[in-house]
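for the writeup, i need someone to sanity check this before i put it in the appendix. the sequnce is what the collaborator sent (i think, or maybe the updated version? ugh). structure was predicted straight from it, no edits. if anything looks off just tell me and ill rerun, i have time this weekend
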Amino acid sequence: QSLGGLATFRAFLKSEYSEENIEFWVSCEEYKKTKSPAKLSPKARKIYDEFISVQATKEVNLDSCTREKTSHNMLEPTLSCFDEAQRKIFTLMEKDSYRRFLKSPYYLDLISPPGAGCGPENCKRNHTHSLDCNSNIISQCA
């Protein structure tokens, strides 16, 4: 995973006031690594309270059906209880934020070698990167 790429994408989302999306996605990835069944419920509750509940401090933009299903999953949390919500937020980032990110100075500075200047060959690159939910986010950056 490119930590530089992830940090840069996070900074871009912060500039757009939507960093809660990547924070939710990363929290879900970490949650899925939980080994102890006893820790599932408290970790799930923390993610739910922070990103999904009506009073969430960093509420992500989910449709009511997904929000309701995720709320229901909180009754008996499993490693996959956030999968649908995570998928929806991922798609939102992929189709919206990530496309703008690829055209932003954040990304262009990340991929341009230091001192490369801005000649036509550097500014007119054709980048067709995409997010891959099952692998590392922004793995091709940096």
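Residues 44 and 123 are 44 Å apart (CA to CA). The chain is about 55% helix and 0% strand.
thx in advance!!
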